[in-house]
Amino acid sequence: MKLEEIKKPNKEDWYSTVEVATFMGCSYELVAKLIKSGKIKAVNISRGAKKKIYRVKAEDVQTYYNQIFNAPHRPQGVDE
Fold this sequence. Notes:
About 35% of the residues lie in helices and about 10% in strands. It is an alpha+beta fold and about 80 residues long. It has one domain: Arc Repressor Mutant, subunit A, CATH 1.10.10. A three-stranded antiparallel sheet has the order 1-3-2. Helix 1 packs across helix 2. It is globular and about 35 Å long. The two termini are about 25 Å apart.
């Protein structure tokens, strides 16, 4: 699913690393590194699986994006 396909995301929506990468215009590998380094807050939902699966709140993506790019950019449909 692409972020453009999400009709009305809000601050409580959760995204995969691929969706975050699409929004930020980078690779999902970079997003995973940012999560592991603590620069983007995320929750591990994999429950002991070998490969970790993360979900990131839209609000946390926005916070990181604003800190790095210092621009008022929001995912489509996010209202304050």
